[in-house]
């Protein structure tokens, strides 16, 4: 019984898609909060954007490396 993908890769892909879905669901409320507390969160928002870029790059690189 051979499958086309290893089980761990399928599980990681599922976790990745669930994470992306959760992020898309929470993103509008995050943006609304940032707009409401803009002066307070300006620096934090920039740091979060940089961290998000790093996470995306590492996630894509890791997912491509799995295949």
Relevant terms:
88% helix; transmembrane helix; 0% strand; mainly alpha; transmembrane; 67 residues; membrane
Would you write up a description of this structure?
Keywords: Membrane, Transmembrane, Transmembrane helix. This protein is mainly alpha-helical and 67 residues long. It has two helices and no strands. The two termini are 20 Å apart.
Task: Name the helix and strand elements from N-terminus to C-terminus, one letter apiece.
Answer: HH
Proportion of residues in extended strands: under 5%
Supply Rg: 16 Å
Which consecutive residue ranges, at least 5 long each, have pLDDT under 50? none
Instruction: Report the count of strand segments.
Output: 0
Number of helices: 2
Structural class per helix/strand content? Answer: mainly alpha
Shape: elongated
Summed over residues and divided by their number, the pLDDT gives a mean of: 74
**Number of self-contained structural domains:** 1
Helix content: over 70%
Distance from N terminus to C terminus (CA atoms, Å) equals 20 Å
Main beta-sheet annotation: none
Keywords: Membrane, Transmembrane, Transmembrane helix
Transmembrane segments: 40-63
